[in-house]
Amino acid sequence: MTYSQLLELSSTLLADVGACTMHSRIRSLTPGKQLVGKALTVRVAPGDNLAIHAALARAQRGDVLVVDGGGYTERALMGGIMMTQAKATGLAGVVIDGAMRDVQELQALGLPAFAVAVHPAGPFKEGPGSLYGAIQCGGVEVHHGDWVLGDDDGVVVMTEAALASLVAAAAAKKQREQDRMDAIDRGDLKPSWLDAALETADIEIVKKPRMY
Prior knowledge:
Blueprint: H1 2-7, H2 11-16, E1 20-21, E2 27-28, E3 35-44, H3 50-58, E4 63-68, E5 76-78, H4 80-89, E6 93-96, E7 99-100, H5 103-109, E8 113-115, E9 117-118, E10 129-131, E11 135-137, E12 140-142, E13 147-151, E14 154-158, H6 160-185, H7 194-200
Parallel strand pairs: 3-4, 4-6, 5-7, 6-8, 7-9
Antiparallel strand pairs: 1-14, 2-8, 3-10, 3-13, 11-12, 13-14
Helix pairs in contact: 4-5
């Protein structure tokens, strides 16, 4: 099953094989928590979370709330109360191109949360906004139903059509990396590809100075 395979992978492996990577400004507010699921997409006006409330009322277990907040960070779009509701609903986590608040509560809840920033000011509840449409989040176009994986290294997005091939490629890369780690344990401290790469690259190796 692809979902269970995703749980064994990381954002770094998937990014290396071609998954779309969100901007580095979107970081985990709940270190150590992995997020895996399908996107429920939301777009809001800067600093306004009315559409997020509408999304939470319609969310299904396993959804990942992915919010296009326009990168606005002077008002938090979600905090402890809404995240408690999200956890009770069974959401897999939240990714916001904007700000959140109540960090200690979020970490105690343990529901994966990713955002651009933390800010104490609360949001407006006036709209406009939208649900289920294509959005921009962290520089990536996200469609409702796309797969999202987030961890301490960042967030990646994959279409349903590309998922199986990306998972297979990432799993193969994971095995290659494990093989290299095993080789290091055996004392093989130079990658097999290094000499050939250095022959064709413009890498200057300055002669070591004599040590006295």
